[in-house]
Write a structure and sequence with these properties.
It is a single chain. By secondary structure, the protein is mainly beta. It has a single domain, classed as 3 Solenoid (Pectate Lyase C-like), CATH 2.160.20.10. Helix content is about 0%, strand content about 55%. It has no helices and 16 strands. It has a 16-stranded mixed sheet that branches.
Length: about 230
C-alpha cells in the first residue's frame, strides 16, 4: 500500500458549485478544487457537495470551503485520493450500504467529525492523513436505526486531532487500528478509540471510556507510532 502523502496537493483549477453534484459510476475530478455550497458552518441541514449513488466512486477531488455537508454516500461507495481542505460540518457521511472505502487523501479543519457512519456495515480508511479535527471517525450514537458498525483504520497520519475513532460498545461496534502515526503529540493527548453508550434518536450518547480492550477497540501498542 502507498504511504500517506506528505502534503496537500495543489489544485489543477477551481470550480464553484451551486448545487449538489450527483455521482453514479465513477467521477474523476483530476484534482480540481470544488467549493461553494453552504456557509462552512456546523449546521446539520446543509446540502452535500457530492451525493454518491450506491456503488459510486469519487476520485482525485479537492473539496474547498465552503463545502456544505461534504460527500454523502447513499450506498456502498469508494473515495480515492479525495482531499478536504476545510471540512466544515462532516467530510463524508456513510448512509446506506454495508461497505465504504476511503483510500488516500486527507482532511483538515474539522471542528467535529471527518467521517460520520450512519448506515450499517464497515468503513475502511487507509493511506489517509487528518489534521486539526475532532474525530476522524464516529459511528452514529443516536441515529434512527441503531446498527452495529465497524471501522478498520490502517496507515493513517494524525495531527492535532482529539480522537481517531468513536464507537458505541453497547451495540457491538468495533474499531481496528494498524500503522497509525501520531505527529507532535508529546503528551499523548489524542485518544485512539473512544467508547460511547449509543442511545435512541433524540438523546445524546454518553462517553464511557477509551483505549484498547480486545473486544471493541482493537489495537496493540505496536500499532501506534508517535513522531
Amino acid at each position: 500500500t502507498n504511504p500517506p502523502p506528505s502534503g496537500w496537493p495543489t489544485p489543477t483549477s477551481s470550480q464553484k458549485v451551486d448545487a449538489t453534484i450527483a455521482v453514479s459510476g465513477t467521477f474523476d475530478g483530476g484534482l480540481k478544487r470544488y467549493y461553494g455550497i453552504g456557509d462552512g458552518g456546523q449546521s446539520e441541514s446543509q446540502d452535500p457537495m457530492f451525493e454518491l449513488a450506491a456503488g459510486a466512486t469519487l476520485r482525485n477531488v479537492i473539496i474547498g470551503a465552503p463545502a456544505g455537508d461534504g460527500v454523502h454516500c447513499e450506498g456502498n461507495c469508494t473515495l480515492i485520493n479525495v482531499w478536504w481542505e476545510d471540512v466544515g460540518e462532516d467530510a463524508a457521511t456513510f448512509r446506506g450500504g454495508t461497505t465504504y472505502t476511503v483510500d488516500g487523501g486527507g482532511a483538515r479543519s474539522a471542528s467535529d467529525k471527518v467521517f460520520q457512519h450512519n448506515g450499517s456495515g464497515t468503513v475502511y480508511i487507509r493511506n489517509f492523513r487528518v489534521e486539526n479535527a475532532g474525530k476522524l471517525y464516529r459511528a452514529c450514537g443516536n441515529c434512527s436505526t441503531s446498527y452495529q458498525r465497524h471501522v478498520v483504520i490502517d496507515n493513517v497520519v494524525v495531527r492535532d486531532t482529539d480522537a481517531i475513532a468513536g464507537i458505541n460498545t453497547n451495540w457491538g461496534d468495533t474499531a481496528r487500528f494498524s500503522r497509525i502515526t501520531i505527529v507532535d503529540d508529546p503528551d499523548r493527548e489524542t485518544s485512539i478509540c473512544v467508547k460511547y453508550k449509543g442511545v435512541p434518536k433524540g438523546s445524546e450518547p454518553t462517553e464511557i471510556g477509551e483505549g484498547a480492550d480486545g473486544v471493541n477497540c482493537l489495537y496493540s501498542p505496536s500499532d501506534i507510532t508517535y513522531q
